[in-house]
């Protein structure tokens, strides 16, 4: 008799990703590649850790685990130690906990995410890991799409989370086609202890309100299938955004003069979606942080091209300014 369908589903998802990792990784004489799982102790990441522990040895991949202690709740260090013990019991090695200090920039959720990814990158570098698996599910993807829609950030924001992201494709998300209940059921039938983060039910957090109020309201109004539809929207949006980004990268070369300055007349001739991508790329290259550069900033710069009335410089995040001078658009740190 085979494993429970939920367990079989998560193992298959992880097996596929591990095959992709092996294909993308050049193995050397140092031995088997190392793949880490980022585990909070919740159902999604515990299901992922168990599947990694089961599948990795069959492919001659070393499997380890990392938990990040954000220090935002009483007893967080104790819970991190519990997660380390659970990962060790699954047979993962190396296993460790990393404590981080969460700042305030961008709000509590964004600050915690930034601190977490910084810590995970450092651990991957320290251990020489070729990939880090993340337990984001289809439900997480749907929430991300709705948050992007609410911000009005454009098609890239609607594309949600990529299955492969980060430096050299380090981050892999095997569960984007699986729902949250599948992961929880897999933990239940395997008797895996899980920890439900109270922040996930705290209405003070936007994602929590969306999860417990927004999405259920949408499903009540529109019927079942909203989560699946939003996940499809993410993939379609990602395909479109990737194509437009490629177009913008090619156009960037053609709209500059011999000194490398952007020519306003050539920018004006581009389709708006491509032109704004060129402007965003230029602002980031000049030093504007990508995470702080919003659609409204790019639209203001775009008006220097499409609605020129002699206006002055546009101030952008990172002390970058955009100014129109003699038919050229100059974007630099002021």
UniProtKB/TrEMBL annotation:
<keyword id="KW-0067">ATP-binding</keyword>
<keyword id="KW-0436">Ligase</keyword>
<keyword id="KW-0963">Cytoplasm</keyword>
<feature type="binding site">
    <location>
        <begin position="40"/>
        <end position="45"/>
    </location>
    <ligand>
        <name>ATP</name>
    </ligand>
</feature>
<comment type="similarity">
    <text>Belongs to the tRNA(Ile)-lysidine synthase family.</text>
</comment>
<dbReference type="InterPro" id="IPR012795">
    <property type="entry name" value="tRNA_Ile_lys_synt_N"/>
</dbReference>
<dbReference type="InterPro" id="IPR014729">
    <property type="entry name" value="Rossmann-like_a/b/a_fold"/>
</dbReference>
<dbReference type="InterPro" id="IPR011063">
    <property type="entry name" value="TilS/TtcA_N"/>
</dbReference>
<comment type="function">
    <text>Ligates lysine onto the cytidine present at position 34 of the AUA codon-specific tRNA(Ile) that contains the anticodon CAU, in an ATP-dependent manner. Cytidine is converted to lysidine, thus changing the amino acid specificity of the tRNA from methionine to isoleucine.</text>
</comment>
<keyword id="KW-0547">Nucleotide-binding</keyword>
<dbReference type="Pfam" id="PF01171">
    <property type="entry name" value="ATP_bind_3"/>
</dbReference>
<dbReference type="InterPro" id="IPR015262">
    <property type="entry name" value="tRNA_Ile_lys_synt_subst-bd"/>
</dbReference>
<feature type="domain" description="tRNA(Ile)-lysidine synthase substrate-binding">
    <location>
        <begin position="262"/>
        <end position="329"/>
    </location>
</feature>
<dbReference type="InterPro" id="IPR012094">
    <property type="entry name" value="tRNA_Ile_lys_synt"/>
</dbReference>
<feature type="domain" description="tRNA(Ile)-lysidine/2-thiocytidine synthase N-terminal">
    <location>
        <begin position="35"/>
        <end position="213"/>
    </location>
</feature>
<protein>
    <recommendedName>
        <fullName>tRNA(Ile)-lysidine synthase</fullName>
        <ecNumber>6.3.4.19</ecNumber>
    </recommendedName>
</protein>
<dbReference type="Pfam" id="PF09179">
    <property type="entry name" value="TilS"/>
</dbReference>
<keyword id="KW-0819">tRNA processing</keyword>
